[in-house]
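Here comes just one.
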Amino acid sequence: MFKFLPYVLAGFLISMLLIFGLRQKQEEVLQNSYRPPVEQSLSDFTFKTLDGRELRLSELHGKVVLVNFWATWCPPCKEEMPIFEREYKRCKDKGFEILAVNMDSSESNLQKFLKENRYSFSIVRPSKDLEKELKLMGFPTSYLLDREGNIYRIRLGVYRELEEDLKKLLGC
């Protein structure tokens, strides 16, 4: 009877480790992803496009907008860019827009990065009012806004659940 006890205990231990690992992963996603309990919006920030134009966030009212703060030196930022490209191509015709706000201090780093990586969504730079008002906890940080301009989700880290959120907001 006791000769099977080590196998039973080993099986129990492995099961507990698997359950703990899956639960830890779920908690990590929940800690880094936040849906405001009440309607909130971002200020009507102004961004600079790469060709020098000014773009106000309010110009995109009526669209679902992802405002993503990133830097070229940030590995998680680079990891999520292909996700954004795929989702942008899939949902842009349904009213989805991305403003990828590059926070690099060096314009040359950004230009080098963009030469090596082509994206069809908008890469913009922050204006001075945005840098003063918005306090970011790290990179990447994303704000997904619904069609009314309300914050649907705040995501710290790689935004892997973007496809799921766009299905809810746009049906695409």
Observations:
- The radius of gyration is 20 Å.
- Strands lie at 33-34, 46-49, 54-56, 64-70, 96-102, 122-126, 141-145, 151-156.
- DSSP finds five helices and eight strands in the chain.
- The chain has a mean pLDDT of 86.
